[in-house]
Structure formats: C-alpha cells, structure tokens
Amino acid sequence: MPAASGAPAPGGFTVGEWARDIDAARWQVLHDAIDEHGHWRPGHTTAYADAQAAATAALRTVALHLGVPLAQVGPCGSCAAFCHLYGPSGNPLCPRCLAAARAAAARAAARAAAARAAAARVEAARPEHRRAA
C-alpha cells in the first residue's frame, strides 16, 4: 500500500471518504427514486443509473489510488470510508481510524501502567504486618 493512501486529500478528507460520500449519495438517490409502494418514480431511473456509475467510478478510483484490485476494496469498520480491506495486508480499519485506535490503545496502556505503579506504591507504604501474602 502506498504511504500516501491514508493522507488527506486537498479538501481535508481521504479518497476513501470521498468514495464513501458518493456511495451514500447513490443510496439516497435510490431512496428518493422509489415510492412508498416500491415502484420507481417517473424520471428517477436515469438518475439512479448515473449515481450507480459515479459510485462504481469512485470505487475504481480508490482501488487505483491504493494500488490494489477492486475486489480488495471495502468499507472501514469504523467510519465506512473505503480502504484496502481484503487480501494480503488488508485491514478492517482505514489508516486514519487505525491510527486513532492505536493512539487510544497506547493511552489505555499508559493509564493501566500508572494504576499499577500507584498500587505498588500504596502496597509498599503499608506496614509489614498488613501486607497481603
């Protein structure tokens, strides 16, 4: 995977996030195109076809950007941005969410270490006859 695959685009979002928004727009067009009885509203079939073509092109763009086959692109488990999900070196999280998860894990580990150190200090300060065996 190229190093820049998780880097934000000029607008402040990644290519995967851009593709996610285009795919969400496709689903919105589909929602708007079908009436409450499950029938297509007049004139909406071409709008959905256009939205479907845009979503497919966006997924192909993500695959090209990541340098992986289209079949290995899927949504991030956290933010739903499209990323290298399947295959070798695939990850269930996009680079941005993975970095946030690793930072959260590091903070949790630091808190746990601090709590263990505090407990050890309290245990060391106890009188000898009150220490747990």
Layout of helices and strands, plus pairs?
Layout: H1 15-33, H2 44-66, E1 73-75, E2 82-84, H3 95-125
Antiparallel strand pairs: 1-2
Helix pairs in contact: 1-2
Any low-confidence stretches, pLDDT <50, length ≥5?
1-10
Quantity of strands, as a count: 2
Order of helices and strands: HHEEH
Mean of all residue-level pLDDT scores = 81
**Shape field:** elongated
**Through-space gap between termini:** 53 Å
Descriptors:
133 residues, mainly alpha, two-stranded antiparallel ribbon, 3 helices, elongated, disordered N terminus
Write up this protein:
It is a single chain. The protein has three helices and two strands; from the N terminus they run ααββα. By secondary structure, it is mainly alpha-helical. It has a domain of 91 residues. The protein has a two-stranded antiparallel ribbon with strand order 1-2. α1 runs antiparallel to α2. The termini are far apart. The N terminus is likely disordered.
Describe, in short, the structure shown:
The chain is mainly alpha-helical.
